[in-house]
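agent> Task received from the user: take the single chain below, predict its 3D structure, and emit structure tokens. No templates, no multimer pairing.
agent> Plan: (1) validate residues, (2) run structure prediction, (3) serialize to tokens, (4) report one or two observations.
agent> Step 1 OK, no nonstandard residues flagged.
tool_call: predict_structure(input=
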Amino acid sequence: MNAVKRRERILRLLRNKPSMTNADLSADLGVARETIRNDLILLEAEGVLKREHGRGVILDDEAAQEKLRSRGILTREERRAEIRRILEERKEVKVAALTKSLNVSEGTVRSDLSALEREGQAQRVHGGAVLVGSPRQDSIVSSLVGGGFSTGVRHICERALSLIERGDVIFIDNSVYSLYIALNIPLESEVSVVTNSLKAACILSQRRYRSDVFMLPGLLQTEELAVEVRFKETLADVFFIAKAFLGFDSYTAERGFFVATDKQFDLCNTITDMSEAFYILIESRHVGERGRYGFPMEEKLGKLGEVMVDDGLSAEQAGSAFPDTHPVTLCGENYALKSPFKRQFIIGFSSLYGSYEFSQTVRRSIEEAARKYSNIELILADNRMDPATTMKNVETFIEKKVDLVIEYQHDYNLAPLIVEKLAHADIPILAIDIPIPGAVYFGANNYKAGLIAGEEAAREVKNRWGGELDNIVVMTDKATGPIPENRIAGMLEAFLKEIPFDQDRIVKVNTSNNRKKSEEDTLKILESVPRNSRNLIMSFNDIVSLGALEALRKLKIEKNSVVVSHSYIRSIARELSRAGSPLLGSVAFFPERYGTKIIDLALRMLHKEAVNPNNYTEHLWMAKRS
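)
tool_result: status=success, residues=626
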């Protein structure tokens, strides 16, 4: 890498990870700190950053920002917004053209296009992507949606979307909330949708939704573009619904919830009876309004998952309006406030990323555990694997005057900034999975987990290949700091203790915790090896393991490969049951059990009790069934 490209790389790193120090840059780029210092001097002279003790800081004035934009130095969000702009202008883009115009790698562009596809803004095609929907299709969707969505509807539906998990079967009705969900549910979510709404079904069709969509049987209501449900007595035999999302028209503290028509009443009654859980969605402006048809809730409270209201209603107002038997969530911009309101303690929880299966399970377990205590008010936020969003959430918690923060974020370099801000506000921190200096930790014992996977890998290599091996590929993530390194160190130590292998031949890959990048990296590394090579892939988590497994299948070398992993999410459990899978097993961390232990730790901290600074989840090797 020449000096010019190195300085551009420095700017990109600092733009996306402002907390990086000179030492971090030196390690990332593989050059001396003196070289980094000289580069920062030159960049300071160009007027794009200023030097502080041990680090460089990007200037935020307009002149500096314009210089950065002109050189293609964008944050991830800015880059994706630019791709979206180009898509809207041209309707189709090629990876090669974007690589050239944005001055980034093809892998980065593909990752951006995949993210836009998950958000329903683009559709991947060979060599690039197209804008979702032709002009004709866009006009159809626009006519279905009408005048768009209010802020309250958006906030409520973002909360609803965060509760939908891979493999769910959900019901959405004919309300405006369901249209938002249909427009924004990720295309690759593997969630089956049941609906009575032709509008929602059309939107999913126009977006080329990739999972099953079922229409309830019944009589077409042409004016509403919905189905009046019939054959109610047989529906439960045909459809299993895990989560039903129902829009209600109004609510009063005296009479409860209301719907507008007798048909809507019958639909809600039928769906709540046949669903495992149902969720009520209602805008705050309709709380206090009396409607036409009162809906009986008493007999159904056991199935009520949540009442979602936008934060146009204050916590005090919500506490007065809804009884304690109704679990209420006030939904704001990237945060949600859980009932009961105004209790002894307010706890802020920032989840890692709402669409990741493991962090989804952790979040749900924390919500369930907190709900058991009458003295906890829980504020939820989503870090979205993004440093800027993470810091914004920290500011929100400070503004809301929380008593403690449960922080689940992946960027180890961001930790000092989080500590500085929360310490200044005198707010203690409980860190999940990624340690934060000075914070109480709960998560995996990474070295121990690595030892378990390494021992199992060694046993398999001995049994299958007599202890002989040709390639070892290690999948890690530099952004999370020592966490994957401890896990990888444990794996390699246990494996090399039993199987001799030249450590200089071990290939380490920084996957950035990205499934697609993991797949691409594995393809590049193994595409040139002989087809009969014996390959071992050691992965620090299941997300990147799934990418590596896809690459092995594309290369048709899965029969000569072994993969060991960590986390044991449901996707990996399904993979283990797949015939001929090269996946040997995964070390389970049981995220569904995190909540009880984390909330117990949090309460002990809030009561000023002594707690162990390092607290670990259980670890268990989950392998194929014999």
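agent> Step 4: summary for the user.
The first strand starts at residue 49 and ends at 52.
agent> Done.
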